Amino acid sequence: MDIVGFLKSQFICHLLICYIFIVSGLIINFIQLFTLILWPINKQLFRKINCRLAYCISSQMVMLLEWWSGTDCTLYTDPESYHKYGKENAIVILNHNFEIDFLCGWNFCERFGVLGSSKVLAKKELSYMPIIGWMWYFLEIVFCKRKWEEDRKTVVQKLLNLRDYPENFWFLIHCEGTRFTEQKHQISMKVAEAKGLPKLKYHLLPRTKGFAVTVQCLRNVVSAVYDSTLNFRNNENPTLLGVLNGKKYHADLYVRQVIHILIPFKLERIPLEDVPEDEQECSTWLHKLYQEKDAFQEEYYRTGTYPAVPTVPPRRPWTLLNWLFWALLLLYPLFQLLINMINSGSSLTLASFAFVIIIASVGVRWMIGVTEINKGSTYGNNDCKQKQK
Q: What pTM, to 2 d.p., does this model score?
């Protein structure tokens, strides 16, 4: 192992990275709190400021993937669609198979300049999570409790609020609702059998109601749907902890702005207005899309590639520069404090510092644990429980 690789694997480096992320994140959350006074005065200015503040947080995560881990992200797409990325509002459908798929989605957003304004449909519990969850609150992220009867009115209102958003944005949505596991897949396919739907090999059945409402509310605001399928070469099993350790992965992301649901493997652009607005028809449309996604996944496992032109969008320097700014701002006072504590020779002071380090380590491990598949939601199990009652 070279010296750089050795340093990347050291706990002290991880602790410093997490210190920068946590302290800068809380500072930014505090600044965001004060931007609330702008909302009744100038809502669009509030939004533009919070897009840039949110970028200061989310770009640190992308920096870990791009610059620290050095993970390669190859984009497979139609060259005629490539120039439109980042220049129009879009709904981005993502598969949900890996612990860092959200990070790769953010990386995709960053390469095309929409990371700060990107939106998601997220579970309500995440809104209480410091830093990222609080950041999302100021970004007007759509949160749901996963109980559609309770969620529908709130989700519709939140989506309608985005119709006059001043920045280009991508709305990222995991239609499967939860990460893929073998147990959840078995349950999902039992539901497919009961409903007379074709079974999927590599995906869970999509949850169609959230997607249908998103299409209805953002029609004439969003230009297209991007169907995105993420895989990692050589059966890699990427984790956020692996990224933090500097492990390099090789991601392949297939993005179809050009979707034709009826003819597999035919690429033909369908703008959002061609996606059915009726909820039942939209549900059928989405199920057909996932059947097609399954076929593309089968093709990838067979050939190791996607049926599109590979390209590597250039890395932008802003994620690294943003992280270096916060590192210079926050590490100097930390080292000064540490030197003063050592010079004081106080056992109580040193013990207090060690206690803070332990608490910080536990907090960091908890935040990483949120992304782990084995710590995922039981959402996929609810249907089975309800059927057994």
A: 0.86
Measure Cα distances from 333 to 14, 78, 142, 343, 388 in Å: 18, 49, 37, 15, 58
Length of the chain in residues, anyone?
Answer: 389
How far from 190 is each of 100, 114, 185, 197, CA to CA, in Å?
27, 38, 9, 10
> Can you give the CATH number for the domain in which 193 is found?
3.40.1130
Domain assignment present for 316 = yes
- What's the pLDDT tens digit per position in 131-167? 999 999 999 999 987 777 778 888 999 999 999 999 9
Number of domains in the chain: 1
Counting beta carbons within 10 angstroms of the beta carbon of residue 207, is it exposed (0 to 12), middle (13 to 18) or buried (19 or more)?
Answer: buried
Q: Are 99 and 238 in contact (CB under 8 A)?
A: yes
pLDDT at 57: 96
Q: Which positions ≥6 away from 341 have C-beta within 8 Å?
A: 349, 350, 353
**Tokens at residue 288, please?**
């057909």
Percent of the chain clearing pLDDT 70 (strictly above): 85
Nearest to 79 by CA among 238, 313, 247: 313
The DSSP bridge pattern shows strands 72-77 and 309-311 to be antiparallel
Query: Count of CB atoms within 10 A of residue 311's CB?
Result: 12
Any domain includes 261: yes
Instruction: Tell me, yes or no, whether 333 lies in a domain.
Output: no
* Single-letter code of the amino acid located at 276: P
Whether 283 is covered by a domain: the verdict is: yes
Rounded to an integer, what distance in angstroms lies between the CA atom of residue 94 and that of residue 103?
Answer: 12
Q: Is the pLDDT of residue 378 over 80?
A: no
- State the pLDDT confidence band at 385, using cuts at 50, 70 and 90: very low
The range of the structural domain enclosing residue 233 comes to 3-320+366-376
